[in-house]
Write a structure and sequence with these properties.
The chain is an alpha/beta fold. It has 13 helices and 13 strands. The radius of gyration is 25 Å and the shape is elongated.
Length: 406
Amino acid sequence: MAEKILIIAVQRQTDDDLHFHYSMEEIKSLSKTARGEVVDVITQKRNQPHPATYLGKGKIEEIDLIIESEEIDLIIANDELSASQMRNLQNRTGVSVIDRSQLILDIFASRATSNEGKLQVELAQYQYLLPRLHGQGLALSRLAGGIGTRGPGETKLESDRRHINRRINEIKRRLQTVVNQREQYRKRRRLNHTFNIAIVGYTNAGKSTLFNRLTDSDSFEEDQLFATLDPMSRKLKLPSGLSAIITDTVGFMQDLPTELIAAFKSTLEEVSEADLIFHVVDASHPDHDQQQATVLELLEELNADHIPMLTIYNKRDQIEGDFIPMLKPSIVVSALVESDRQDILVETERLIKKIWRKYQITLPADQGKILQQYKQHSLMIREVFLEEQQAYQIEGYLPEDHPLIR
């Protein structure tokens, strides 16, 4: 049975009404993704959240009435709470309290399928909970667990800080092995001069749908937040014959817990190692401007803001009214339409031509193996067999530092 949730939120005087509205819609969606039922919402306009109880005294009294009449199981705050705010709210209401960060971490804990993903989420949860243990008694002793207690939350975290610190160190050691393996893969790709594309975007923008259709893959796709957690890489052939590796990544979101970004550093490094970024934006979302700004900020944090980027405005079929792309270069598509996906690949090649250096060479007919390398690693635009010379004349584009450049 779904837990009954009461959402509480502070709208600061500086918060734009529309942006606050979408933030509230987002936390409702997050609660639904965590398999909870949002029964009611309490908001308060303040300069700053109350330092002791997040909301003011009058609102706390309102909360008490709702808890009694609606039999609320869980309160979720739309901001990150301090340990004292969480403890005071729990003591005052008698109901478990978690914040937005804990909710996101909980969703990640339920979604992680790979060993690396599970370790990364567990590390993020421990690092988030460690400084807040004093306020976690009620939340962690809830019968049968529930939202916010998946993953390491199911153990008596408050009983042994040393155990938690030992576990954090152990996870870090195990993750380091995975990080080293991932770096070896990347090194191999660099040595092979493989062209790498990373798909990024706000959660639920349609990244996995695009990834699956471009690569005939089957990564999890659903109309919900954080449908993809574990990154997946596949081969992609561009119209010219150039082979690339394309990687689907976890969705971004505003106010992602810093512990989560830190824990997923090795996974997110896939983005900073890319040669090209596909930034997928849900063009039909009323707040898509803010969503794309959030992604750009996170790319900057990952030192990936210098990488060439194609912005793919997705869900063209759901756009209402005129649409003006804010970012360039860009393309407006529906990931479900075959011809639109072909347009993305054509646009990708157009971008590559701008980044790479043009070459034109003649190869003797007996150098078929080298010709094959040009076909695989370069963006070839012309291939002519010269009968008299018994040679191939080829023309195309290659990265500046590629060994095939002569």
